[in-house]
């Protein structure tokens, strides 16, 4: 039987493979680590849950959304039981599941979870921390999807200001937020043109 240290190392290697887009190899390593951890420390040990969370992220990035949802929900339930609702690990999975719900078109649940993630991140890290700002950006995307463009724009601008202070204007995160703002501006201009051409 492999030690927990060895199994953690296997899971970390899975992370490296995932980051380098070697998804099949990463999945194999995660599953090996998870099965080993279940035997050594149990399914609700934080180390096992961490590897399950990593596997859920891999599934989400590989468009295996149903499998990802099941794992995120399972890990979130366990983290809530072990750590409470406002622990940083719980909040991280809450954020990930909210993003997944948006990809699935489940905007009400995405809104609920991402609002919860923003509020909890503000309490844990403060309103100007990158974790809070990224959650706010993802919440803004949901409001954009729902057609609530004024609210989406407000959140995009708040996120952009903070992320530019944190990373600078050339970093990919502020650029993504700026692109979202630009898309809202494009929609607004198209509406203006349509109104001007209306009989």
Please describe the topology of this protein.
Layout: H1 4-19, H2 23-40, H3 46-61, H4 65-83, H5 88-103, H6 107-125, H7 130-145, H8 149-167, H9 172-197
Write up this protein.
The protein has 199 residues and is mostly helical. It is 83% helix and 0% strand. The chain contains nine helices and no strands. The chain has helices at 4-19, 23-40, 46-61, 65-83, 88-103, 107-125, 130-145, 149-167, 172-197. α1 (4-19) packs antiparallel against α2 (23-40), α1 (4-19) runs parallel beside α3 and α7 (130-145) packs parallel to α9. It is elongated and about 70 Å long. It starts with a helix and ends with a helix. The model has no long low-confidence stretch (mean pLDDT 93).
List keywords for this structure.
199 residues, mainly alpha, 9 helices
- Please give the alpha-carbon distance between the first and last residues: 77 Å
**Mean of pLDDT:** 93
**How many E-type strands?**
0
Supply the helix-strand structural class. mainly alpha
The number of helices is 9
What radius of gyration results from the CA coordinates? 19 Å
What fraction strand? Answer: under 5%
Report low-confidence residues grouped into runs of 5 or more.
none
- SSE string, helix = H, strand = E? HHHHHHHHH
The portion of residues assigned to helices is: over 70%
């Amino acid at each position: 039987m492999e030690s927990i240290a060895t199994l953690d190392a296997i899971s970390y290697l899975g992370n490296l493979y995932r980051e380098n887009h070697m998804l099949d190899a990463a999945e194999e390593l995660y599953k090996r680590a998870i099965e080993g951890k279940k035997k050594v420390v149990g399914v609700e040990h934080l180390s096992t849950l961490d590897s399950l969370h990593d596997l859920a992220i891999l599934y989400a990035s590989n468009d295996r959304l149903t499998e990802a949802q099941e794992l995120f929900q399972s890990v979130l339930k366990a983290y809530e039981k072990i750590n409470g609702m406002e622990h940083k690990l719980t909040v991280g999975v809450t954020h990930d599941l909210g993003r997944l719900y948006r990809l699935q078109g489940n905007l009400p649940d995405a809104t609920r979870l991402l609002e919860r993630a923003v509020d909890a991140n503000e309490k844990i890290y403060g309103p100007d921390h990158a974790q809070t700002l990224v959650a706010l950006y993802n919440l803004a995307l949901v409001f954009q999807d729902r057609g609530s463009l004024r609210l989406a724009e407000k959140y995009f601008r708040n996120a952009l200001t903070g992320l530019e202070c944190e990373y600078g204007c050339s970093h990919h995160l502020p650029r993504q937020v700026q692109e979202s703002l630009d898309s809202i501006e494009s929609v607004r201009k198209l509406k203006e043109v349509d109104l001007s051409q209306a009989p």
